[in-house]
Amino acid sequence: MTVKNRPLLILFGGRDREGIILRLKSLHYPIRAVVAPERASEKLVQSLARISMEGLRVVRCRKASLVRTLEEFRGDTLLSIGFPYLLPRAALDLFPLCLNVHPTLLPQYRGPTSGPYILMNRETESGSTVHLIDEGMDSGPIVLQAKATLSRFDTIRSLRRKVYSLEPDLVVQALERLKGPGFQPVPQDESRASVYPKARTPADSEIDPRQTLLGLFDFIRACDPDDFPAFFYVEGQKVCIRLWRPDRPQVDGEDTL
Q1: 143 phi/psi in degrees, rounded to 5
Q2: What residue segments make up the domains of the chain, in order of their start?
Q3: How much helix, strand and coil, in percent to the nearest 5, is found in the chain?
Q4: Where are the beta strands (DSSP E) in 42-138?
Q5: Quick one: which of 96, 24, 26, 42 has its CA closest to 34?
Q6: Do 88 and 173 meet the contact criterion of CB atoms below 8 Å apart?
Q7: For residue range 153-185, what is the model confidence (pLDDT) as tens digits?
Q8: CA–CA distance from 171 to each of 44, 168, 176, 198, 211 (Å)?
Q9: What is 8-192's CATH number?
Q10: Which three-class secondary structure state does DSSP give residue 151?
Q11: Which residue ranges in the chain fall short of pLDDT 50?
């Protein structure tokens, strides 16, 4: 499989992951447009604003009209970054090559919001995967992966930061690898696959206060302290929990405990 110098069409829904797009632009990869969902969080809107400031065309679309929107870009190379919709066959057939950037080490932790479970399960590493898109959920053959080391003091924010910082170089390397003659992506090992298909909601951060603090530690650090804080109820009142270490090493950009 080889990649010709086709323009890139980028499907984008991954807040704070615009670094991939900005890196591709800085290296003069031709980007025809960035397609984003019409409904977007405030943080995703901020990411889209940074993309627009770079002079890139941003197209907003609804799920129901996705295929019609993509018709304009038929024949491009499609690159999906945190896009919230599974692509139907009618969309995939428009493009000779469809790639996705998934922020876990596939085949483990497939799904739209699997990051917290990496921390709950006390994984010691995570990373990101560039893979071909098929009609399954994050199940296509793997082009390239990059790994990051985790500690017991990582939080959902530091996990994202570590993984997202890998992705600009990872995507560029994957695209270059696909240009090489004879390269074939590697099918995922289904015997190692794990899937977390349900999008997390604030209710998923409710803890059982009858458990010990040590027993709850990994669950709490997996909850975003602002967007999805860990909480429980006392006399009908919601009480939220935030963890920190007074002796945490001072490292720029760190969001560890």
Answers
A1: -90, -50
A2: 8-192
A3: 30, 20, 45
A4: 58-61, 77-81, 97-102, 125-132
A5: 24
A6: no
A7: 999 999 999 999 999 999 999 999 999 888 999
A8: 20, 5, 9, 26, 42
A9: 3.40.50.12230
A10: coil
A11: none
